[in-house]
Design a protein that fits this description.
InterPro entries: DNA-bd_HTH_TetR-type_CS, Homeodomain-like_sf, HTH-type_TetR-like_transc_reg, HTH_TetR, Tet_transcr_reg_TetR-rel_C_sf. It is a single chain. This protein folds into two domains: 68 residues, Orthogonal Bundle (Arc Repressor Mutant, subunit A), CATH 1.10.10; 146 residues, Tetracycline Repressor, domain 2 (Orthogonal Bundle). The protein is 76% helix and 0% strand.
Length: 221
């Protein structure tokens, strides 16, 4: 399934260094239309109650076209995860060498990870359900989180070397604390969105930073 999705994505991506031609641009637009309509339906009905036919009708494409891009509706979630991982990788590669304060790094990273549903708690809830509904989905989610954790650990390690972050925890343990804080914040916000998610993420990143910053960093403030 993942190989099929990767194949579909590679076909829809322009060659490295070359501008997309008209056909590639049209394929990209079709894929994104399918994704956006699927997300809208997921937020309104939930992933489990949304059918492929619902998505194709909303996106105004045939089922054959849908399956050219996604083997199943669940693979849209896989596509979103892969897309987010790409954004995280790009951000982390810059954050390792950035002079930006660590609290801002934590906040911006949290914002990137949650940007797809930042203004729609119903979508956040709907996207979580499939990952708890089957063993294969949970395993895939756990594997993706492990990859994200490894990337974030690189930032933690770099900031430890600068003396900004406490060194009694490993970079991986620090990255795990970030994931735990972000997951809890997101779930609680999706259940009670009385406060905007960006505000919740800012509070979370400030509290987390207060807990992981080094004594030297506090003294130099």
């Amino acid at each position: 399934m993942d190989n099929a999705l990767h194949h579909a994505n590679s076909e829809n991506s322009p060659s490295c260094g070359k501008p997309p031609n008209r056909r590639e641009k049209r394929r990209t637009e079709t894929r994104e239309r399918i994704v956006q309509q699927a997300l809208r339906l997921f937020s309104e009905r939930g992933v489990m109650a949304t059918t492929v036919e619902d998505i194709t009708n909303a996106a105004d494409v045939g089922k054959g076209t849908f399956f050219n891009y996604f083997p199943s509706k669940e693979d849209i979630l896989t596509y979103l995860c892969q897309s987010q991982m790409g954004k995280i990788k790009e951000f982390v590669s810059k954050a390792i060498h950035s002079t930006e304060s660590m609290d801002q790094v934590l906040y911006r990273l949290a914002s990137i990870i949650t940007e797809e549903f930042a203004d729609c708690p119903a979508l956040a809830r709907s996207l979580l359900v499939p990952f708890f509904a089957s063993d294969s989905a949970r395993q895939r989610m756990a594997a993706d989180l492990k990859k994200d954790r490894k990337m974030l650990a690189g930032v933690m390690a770099a900031r430890q070397k600068r003396g900004e972050i406490r060194d009694d925890l490993t970079p991986t343990e620090l990255a795990l604390q970030f994931q735990r804080a972000l997951f809890g914040t997101t779930v609680l916000w999706s259940l009670d969105p009385s406060k905007p998610l960006p505000d919740c993420l800012k509070e979370m990143s400030d509290v987390l930073w207060s807990g992981i910053r080094s004594q030297t960093s506090r003294q130099n403030q």
